[in-house]
Every structure is written in structure tokens, then in C-alpha cells.
Amino acid sequence: MVVRRDSAVGEQASGGAKKTTKAAASGSAKRSAGAAGKAAGAAATEMAASAKKAASARKAAAAKKAAPKKTAKKSVEKAAKKSAPSKAPAKKAAPAKVTPAKPPRNESHTALVRRARRINRELAEVYPYAHPELDFENPFQLVIATVLSAQTTDLRVNQTTPALFAKYPTPEDLAAANPEEVEEILRPTGFFRAKTKSVIGLSKALRDDFGGEVPGRLEDLVKLPGVGRKTAFVVLGNAFGRPGLTVDTHFQRLVRRWQWTDAKEPDKIEAAVGALFPKSEWTMLSHHVIFHGRRICHARKPACGACPIAPLCPAYGEGETDPEKAKKLLKYEKGGFPGQRLNPPQAYLDAGGIPAPPLGAPMPGSPPVGTE
Ligand code: SF4
Questions:
Q1: What atom of ligand 1 comes closest to residue 292's alpha carbon?
Q2: From residue 190, how far is each of 162, 187, 195, 196 by CA, in Å?
Q3: What CA–CA distance (Å, rounded) separates 334 from 64?
Q4: Do residues 162 and 72 both lie within one domain?
Q5: How far does the centroid of ligand 1 lie from the alpha carbon of residue 257, in Å?
Q6: Alpha-carbon distance 168 to 1, whole Å?
Q7: How confident is the model over 229-261, as pLDDT tens digits?
Q8: For a FRET experiment, which of 199, 249, 320, 333 has its CA 20 to 30 Å from that of 206?
Q9: What is the pTM of this model?
Q10: Which domain holds residue 264?
Q11: For residues 172 and 191, what is the distance between their CA atoms, to the nearest angstrom?
């Protein structure tokens, strides 16, 4: 769904009205001048008596005709007033105001479900190519990349992992790695010492407890060092096709802005939002919400004026509402920049998406690397 502000339509309409009212004004002036002349002639001669009769009949008819056009007359006067300073440049029509959705105070569960699903449907239209934004070729690469994505962007992780997986392609290889060498590779992702410990520890657990394979069950995944429910669901949803909600920082912020829940703990948010959608939609819902959080509905400056779901959002106005200024806040492909993946899915490329460049390659106009 796209919010349209048809200011041009408004301007055309008012221009047309001016033309019509101008024509009406000059016509009515001519008519009244003619009527005045005839009335004078009728008073001078007797012959005019009959003419007077006819004239008054015409006058009455004209008055009858004019009667329902009082409003037109008013608008003629208004138009005349307006047209007086017509040499001044026409005022630009103000963009249509977006009225933020106001969910009723005691919104029923059914109404909330309907509202939440509508937002998800709209987001699915805005991001038909939504996908996990970490590059991976197998569950091992995904679980490692997800652990590395803490406190940095997926873009930065994607630019770093090719070197890591080229050197340590399996859990066994990474489990036996020299930590200092791994630290050097992971340095660009920040917190590289802690992350090195995590990925080596995780690889050892995979090697020792799961035969070198990433398990496909939630209860096993959360036993791995450094793997919480969020990471586990990313892996389940995207490497095993098992539905999962990814309650990351974007997800938490957006669902609270939309008043889907006021819970603050990820587990409670997961339960509350999970209850609004069928399980089969959980993975794609997570992608839609996270895509929107990264591109438009940012933490500090949400681009409300450029947001396609503004009419559905109770938090509209929390960010920049001026459309032009809001446009400048858009990130990644919505702002005309490359996406986060070096190897994005075909659907993204088909939609005109641009892949991210490898680490060190110039990325003109790219958004600053941060936690967004
Ligand atoms: S950008 Fe603004 S209008 Fe859009 S979802 Fe976020 S808070 Fe709501």
C-alpha cells in the first residue's frame, strides 16, 4: 500500500473552478447591464408599458434562475477576491494529512489480530523480497554468522565471514583454530575477542555433542554456548524451514510502536506476537518487521513521512513527517543504497536490489555502520 498525497489533483481542481467562476461573473454582469437599459426605456414611453410587462416577466424569470445560484454568486465573489492578487504565485497545496490509527483503548483480541495481520500484509507488499540478511550456505554458517551479528550490522558480518569460512569451513576446523588468528579475522565485527571465544566454543559443542552437525530442534540449539532463543529461531526458520519469530531489537521496537504488545522481555513479546499470527507466518513476519525497522522505522528517527504503513500506525509522528525530509532518512535499497547481503536471493535482485560490496570495497553513499 502506498500513501498518496495528491496535491496536484487539488491544484487542478481549484484552477478549473476559477475559470468557471470567472466566466459566470462576466456573463451575469452583462445580463444585469442589459436589464437596467431595458427598464429605463420602459419608463420613457407608453409603448414601453407592454415591454415593461415583458421585461418584468423576463426579470422574474431571470431572478428565478438566479435564485438557486446564490452559492455560485458567493463563489464568484470569492473567486474575484482570490483573483485580485492573482499575479502572486499560487500557494502550493499542503500534503494530505495522515491520520494515525488509534486503536481503541480496550481493543479486543480479535480486533488486534485483524490490525496486526493487516500491517503484516501491507509490509509483505512493500518488501516482497524480504529475506534473512546474513549470507550463509549451510546451518553451520548461519549459526556462526548470527552469533557474530550481535552489536553490529548484518552487512559487516557478511563482509567478514567469507574469510572466516574460507579458512574454517566446518565446526571441526573452527573448534581447532588458533584463537588469535580468528580474532584477527573477526576484528571488524567489534567485540572480536568475546566473539572468537563464542564461535570456537560453539564449534567445539557441535563437534563433541552433535557429531559436527547443527541440530534442528529448539531445545538442542539453545544448549549451544552463545545461542539463545533469538539465534535458535533464526537458524530454525531460515536453515531448517521451521517457523520461528526473531525477536531482535527492531522487532521489539516496532511491535511496541504498533501496540501489538506492551511487553518488554523478548520471551513475552514472542508469546504475545506469536498468538496474533498462524505459526506458518512467523518467519516471514519476522523478516517483514526487521526489514521495516532497518529501512524506514528506525530507532531514533523513524521516517514517518515516507512510511507506507503510516495510516495504520498508532505511532505515526514519532519521527519525521515531512515527506521530503523523511525520504532522506531511508536506508539500504529504500534509500537507493546496496542491501546487506553480498549474495542476496534472486527475488531481491529481480526487484532491483543491489548486493553489498565485499569488505574494503568502496560503498558510495552507504549508511554508516552501526547497530541499525
Ligand atoms: S515509520 Fe512512523 S509511521 Fe511508519 S511504522 Fe514507524 S512510527 Fe509508524
A1: 5
A2: 17, 6, 8, 11
A3: 60
A4: no
A5: 8
A6: 45
A7: 999 999 999 999 999 999 999 999 999 999 999
A8: 249
A9: 0.73
A10: 139-350
A11: 23
